[in-house]
Design a protein that fits this description.
The protein has one domain: YqgF/RNase H-like domain (Nucleotidyltransferase, domain 5, 2-Layer Sandwich), CATH 3.30.420.140. With 147 residues, it is an alpha/beta fold. It has 5 helices and 5 strands, in the order βββαβαβααα. Helix 3 packs across helix 5.
């Protein structure tokens, strides 16, 4: 059984999270500049056994996909070309930024760090996406999007 790797994709930076090899505990890997993300993922999957990659699927309140999918789809296409045998799935990411901000506040992280470490929300969002995926896997399962 390999790890699950989750990505909270952003135009400037992306939060990345991963599970332990037994796919029980998600943890943050950090925040990666978007232009370095593909190289980061390729390097990581060479070093660690990764079973699948989970991409945050941004949706609006009416369940339509967000305009940011126009940036995510090309990245996923490049990822699929680079890793043709890797399973890649989407996971609903509505409210993850709000939940991440609340989690950070409740963890007692000071206001100064919250304001200066802009990537912290992205990393925690990736952990939440991964946790949501794990919970959905136990119940309804992940979101599968066509091509």
């Amino acid at each position: 059984m390999g790890r699950l790797l989750a990505i909270d994709y952003g135009q400037k930076r992306c939060g990345v999270a991963v599970t332990d090899p037994l796919q029980i505990i998600p943890g943050g890997l950090g925040t990666i500049p978007t232009h370095q993300l593909l190289d980061f993922v390729l390097d990581y999957v060479q070093r660690e056994e990764v079973e699948r990659i989970i991409i945050g699927y941004p949706r609006q309140m009416n369940s339509q996909e967000s305009a940011s999918m126009k940036y995510i789809r090309p990245f996923v296409g490049r990822l699929q070309n680079a890793l043709p045998s890797m399973a890649i799935e989407y996971q609903d990411e509505r409210f993850t930024s709000t939940l991440a901000q609340r989690t950070i506040r409740e963890a007692g992280i000071g206001r100064r760090r919250r304001e200066t470490d802009k990537g912290l929300v992205d990393e925690v969002s990736a952990v939440i996406i991964l946790q949501s995926y794990l919970e959905a896997k136990k119940g309804l399962g992940p979101i599968h999007l066509p091509g």
